[in-house]
# Entry
Amino acid sequence: MDSKKKFCIQGVATLLQNANFKGFFTGKIFQGTAKSVCVPGLNCYSCPGAVGSCPIGSLQNFLSAKKFRFPYYVVGLLIFFGALLGRAVCGFLCPFGFLQDLLHKIPFPKKIRSFRGDRLLRKLKYGVLLVMVILLPLFCKLVPVFCKYLCPSGTLSGILLSLADTRLFRVLGGQFFWKLSVLCLVVLGSVLLYRPFCKYLCPLGAVYAPFNKISLLQMRKDADKCTQCGACAAVCEMCVDPSQTPNSTECIRCGKCVHACPEDALQFTTVFQKHDNTKE
# Structure
């Protein structure tokens, strides 16, 4: 899939998940019935345009409640999205992923493709999921730790709300400025490095990553056509080699490798079709 089609899908998905356009002018959070439904990507409940709920925020609300309730609904939706698409959710349906893609298009003299410690840092998102999204909310009641202390999408939502209703600026404190610094680091990082939040910190990416190997949507490599030319790996901005691990947990299914392959050795398929995936 070429980049124009991908950006169109991402743009439409972002608009659909933030279709309460009047909220950007009134500073009021949408409270309609759709707000009880979790969207597949990272999109803060408090965004003035949001018409649905963030699955990570919803998960924490269940876990940090005074009386514990297992989040069957949220977990069920995450399993559904993951089993259907894997990390294609990250590549096409996540508004914050789309924002990072846009930021990375800003010209800069030297973009960073990778660095020493990159692979190790990618494991950090699993720690964020376990500690900040699951364990700490379980023990710190009424405190959605990830949303409160780390989530840059929530910070951006707070800024948008404050711009629409300037009275909110009066109640912003130290915690907001801590999260603002996190957001600034993510924004700067996104200009220099492709999707740093997705790679290193996003707990939603950590949820969907294992599903890449078993989801309905799969990447197929035709071993008879593949010449190991390296064209697919060269264009992959997630630094995956699709000729070796076409269903890597780091792949966000953007389709650049499929478009770049000169031999048409890579294609999207389903889990029900036989395929040659080496080093899975």
Q: What stands out?
A: Residues 221 and 266 are 5 Å apart (CA to CA). The beta strands are 217-221, 266-270.
